[in-house]
Design goal:
The chain has helices at about 1-15, 15-55, 80-85, 125-130, 150-160, 205-210, 230-245, 260-285, 305-310, 310-350, 350-360, 365-400, 405-410, 425-450, 455-460; strands at about 60-65, 70-75, 95-110, 110-120, 135, 145-150, 165-170, 175-190, 200, 220-225, 245, 285-290, 300-305. It is an alpha+beta fold.
């Protein structure tokens, strides 16, 4: 086998131009698929990071109560059940915070704008404050309970400048109208084009406006040490909540009945209602009414993760990766046609050489393996070159500042594009490449191994 490998390497060096062209085509295919996989991987990671920064966590627990009038109110009055439920996964939790949210109307002079407002405990979430993409103003006046941070788009619609006062009109958790005075201390870059626009203020002040008592809140936000644990940690916490209290069925765990049409429709309605409630709490609706619901006692808990919210993004990434894989395979198929034709020409050129090797005792399998090894080493060399080229391209592109436009910021990390290449994706691509290369060389190699020594030695081209 050692001699077979040496002969294969020698033949590759003998035909430098042909080997370079074949290896270059393979390298181009590997370059394209690796950069695309890295781009989609980095895109998904950046969106998750930015979603996490905007919403203040990766796992969100909300609570709801039902009033005598059938109104569902978003509030958590006691966090004991949540504290008990997260105990089994405390080692995977980086931090946890209480938030409240309101969908309110900001008023400045004669102008108004609808705006979601998050109540933040600035003393406990200093890291969150520092992560906000400030455009104008500063965070030095966060200690003022009436301090408000608005998205740039909302501030522009209102025509308000940093340092000026405004009113915010909202509904309490029980449905009464209320008005609060605020001072704009800063504006932040938002993602209104993506349907995400959030303002921030003091948790205690917002709770007072919402009519909640001390210690009450609406959403329990959890940051994880590793976002890859999001689903597993979410499942553990949800199981703990379900053992201790009434819970909404999670969207990704609710079975859909398909045996009967009516059952299927009921399950779908329940799924939509459950997600609607979860999003209502997360996006800032303090209360909402529903028909035909069964009343419950106490607080009903619901849990949602970033992965639940990013279903469409995950699907988009999966589609891009699939398209990239199809393009990669098509490029390789075209390249493999060239590999097959190249090896057919090689066999014609080496017919007498093959006859000589067979005449001195080389077995058919060894002759065949020489050509298969040539194809394998050529593809391996091309793959290595393609991976190195992809690394250089990704390194250069990741150093280019792409600005801070509102739309692009959502897909970037600190204003730059990032790439994340999974070893599994690289391994799959290499396996596909190797199999196609061996398949392309198999028929010419098999024909070469079947040449009779005497006939091959008499052949002249």
């Amino acid at each position: 086998m050692k001699n077979t490998i040496k002969i294969a390497f020698r033949n590759i060096r003998r035909q430098k131009k042909r080997s370079f062209l074949l290896g270059g085509a393979i390298a181009f295919g590997i370059l394209i698929i690796t950069v695309l996989n890295g781009f989609t991987g980095g895109l998904a990671d950046n969106i998750k990071d930015n979603f996490s920064a905007i919403f203040g966590g990766q796992i969100f627990i909300s609570g709801s109560e039902i009033t005598d009038t059938g109104r569902v109110v978003s509030v958590i009055r006691n966090e004991k059940i949540i504290s008990e439920s997260i105990k089994p996964v405390l080692d995977k939790i980086k931090s946890a915070h209480k938030h409240s949210r309101a969908f309110a109307e900001a008023i400045f002079g004669s102008r108004t704008a609808r705006q979601r407002i998050d109540g933040i405990d600035w003393q406990k979430e200093k890291g969150f404050a520092e992560s906000l993409p400030i455009v104008k103003g500063s965070l030095k006046n966060l200690s003022n309970p009436q301090a408000l941070i608005l998205p740039v788009s909302t501030a522009d619609r209102l025509g308000i400048e940093v340092g000026e006062s405004l009113l915010v009109r909202l509904s309490t958790i029980t449905g009464q109208k209320n008005v609060g005075d605020f001072i704009l201390i800063a504006t932040v870059r938002d993602q209104e084009s993506m349907g995400i626009s959030t303002a921030y203020t003091s948790l205690n002040y917002l709770n007072n406006l919402l009519g909640m008592k001390g210690g009450e809140f609406q959403v329990f936000n959890i940051y994880l040490n590793n976002m890859e644990d999001m689903d597993s940690v979410g499942n553990v916490i949800y199981a703990g909540l379900k053992r201790r209290a009434i819970t909404e069925e999670r969207l990704n765990t609710t079975p859909v009945v398909t045996t009967k049409e009516s059952g299927s429709k009921t399950a779908e309605i329940d799924r939509e209602r459950n997600m609607h409630r979860s999003f209502a709490s997360l996006m800032g609706s303090s209360f909402f009414s529903e028909k035909n619901i069964e009343p419950w006692e106490g607080t009903k808990y619901s849990l949602i993760t970033l992965n639940d919210m990013m279903g469409e993004v995950t699907t988009m990434v999966r589609i891009l990766n699939t398209i990239g894989l199809i393009i990669f395979i098509l490029l390789l198929v075209i390249t493999m046609v060239g590999v097959t034709n190249s090896f057919r020409m090689t066999i014609l050129e080496r017919t007498r050489e093959i006859g000589t090797m067979r005449a001195i005792g080389m077995q058919r399998n060894n002759v065949r393996n020489i050509f298969l090894l040539e194809a394998f080493f050529t593809s391996l060399g091309g793959a290595i070159a393609g991976l190195l080229a992809a690394g250089v391209v990704m390194l250069i592109v990741s150093r280019i500042p792409l600005g801070a436009t509102s739309f692009m910021w959502f897909f970037l990390k600190r204003g730059k594009m990032t790439f994340s290449v999974l070893p599994l994706n690289v391994l799959v691509n290499l396996v596909i490449l190797s199999l196609l290369s061996l398949l392309a060389a198999w028929n010419p190699a098999r024909k070469a191994s079947k040449l009779e020594p005497a006939q091959a030695l008499r052949t002249e081209y």
